[in-house]
Design a protein that fits this description.
By secondary structure, the chain is α/β, with parallel strands linked by helices. It has twelve helices and twelve strands. The protein has a five-stranded mixed beta sheet. Strands 3-6-7 form a three-stranded parallel beta sheet. It has a two-stranded antiparallel ribbon with strand order 1-2.
């Protein structure tokens, strides 16, 4: 689960007579076919080159300037916080991150990661060694600070994807594709996601115009609102172009992470037409969602509240997570 304060912590087109016209058309057609064939051959050659590159040992420079020797066809990969990218590229890690001894995992990926053992999210050296990885990929520089990089490097080649705590998910996917020689696959995933978001945006506009939306997370009797340029916020306000409520804009201006605390009293001011609630308190008999103030929130009064569990994709980011969020929003808004 993405850290509330700092974490997460997703990622493009008349002639001089009938004879002359006919000859020109024939010539153009032949040239088009030749160009198309040439283009297909170039693309096939590029894909073949990528596969050849992926099948041998390579040296890549990571975000921190380390020259990392990437093994040929790594099979035992640990890439904590990056499992969405791996799954999108058809790669299964040897372990998946978890919190509280496996109590919390990325539920939305379990169709693909079912049976994959868990590893603590902070990657203790002993736990990493236990899995005998042949490649370690780190989400951000903060995960290897304080001399940790040298320790991980002793276990297996260690590649750091980005310098920031919250890196752009598209860049992370692209760099992950480069590590595995799957640049073409990563590009296709991005193109498919962008096409999906564009289609959803048009459908929402046709059905509801430009509604205002917000996402809040309820955990341990406290509410958090997603930042407008990260995680689900980037999907709603960026990819789908939906209207951002004033309250979200105000809190996002000083936000330091994906999710920021918001009081129930402040939520009453939330001028959102649709409200998406990620409820981590479902095990409790009574939650803040039964509070009288909650029932005064405009979207709640209008019956436009849609609830999701913490196992779903709303707390994460990546092509798969974001695609599922798009599906959720589309289902809620387009009747």
């Amino acid at each position: 689960m993405i850290n509330v304060l700092s974490k997460k912590k997703f990622l493009q087109l008349m002639g001089a007579g009938l004879l002359a016209i006919s000859l020109a058309a024939c010539s153009d057609n032949n040239e088009d076919k030749a160009e198309k064939k040439s283009g297909e051959n170039t693309e096939q050659q590029s894909t073949s080159d990528q596969k050849a590159e992926a099948g041998k040992e390579r040296t890549l420079t990571d975000a921190m300037g380390h020259e990392v020797v990437i093994p040929a066809n790594p099979k035992r990969v640990i890439a904590t916080y990056l499992e969405d990218n791996l799954v999108a590229l058809g790669i299964k890690p040897v372990a998946q991150w978890s919190v509280n001894d496996g109590a919390s995992i990325q539920g939305y990926l379990q169709n693909e990661l079912k049976g994959i053992p868990t590893i603590p999210h902070d990657l203790p050296f002993e736990a990493v060694q236990k899995f005998s990885p042949d490649l370690i990929i780190m989400d951000s520089a903060s995960m290897v600070e304080g001399g940790k990089y040298e320790q991980y490097k002793k276990i297996a080649p260690t590649y750091v994807i980005g310098k920031e705590v919250n890196n752009d998910w598209r860049d992370e996917l692209t760099r992950t594709g480069e590590v595995f020689g799957k640049e073409a696959e990563a590009k296709k995933v991005l193109e498919d996601y962008d096409a999906k978001a564009k289609d959803a945006k048009e459908k929402i506009k046709d059905a509801a115009g430009n509604p205002s939306v917000a996402a809040v997370w309820l955990v341990n009797d406290e509410f958090f609102v997603v930042s407008d340029n990260l995680s689900a916020g980037a999907v709603m306000y960026g990819d789908l172009g939906l209207k951002e409520p004033a309250v979200v804009k105000e809190i996002s201006a000083s936000a330091t992470g994906n999710w920021s605390a918001i009081s129930l009293e402040k939520l009453v001011e939330l001028d959102a037409d649709y409200l998406f609630v990620i409820n981590s308190d479902t095990a409790k008999d009574k939650t803040q969602l039964s509070n009288a103030l909650w029932k005064n929130i405009p979207a709640v009064k209008a019956g436009n509240v849609f609830e999701y569990s913490a196992d779903e994709s709303w707390l994460y980011t990546g092509a798969i997570a974001n695609g599922q969020i798009v599906d959720n929003i589309l289902k809620a808004v387009v009747k």
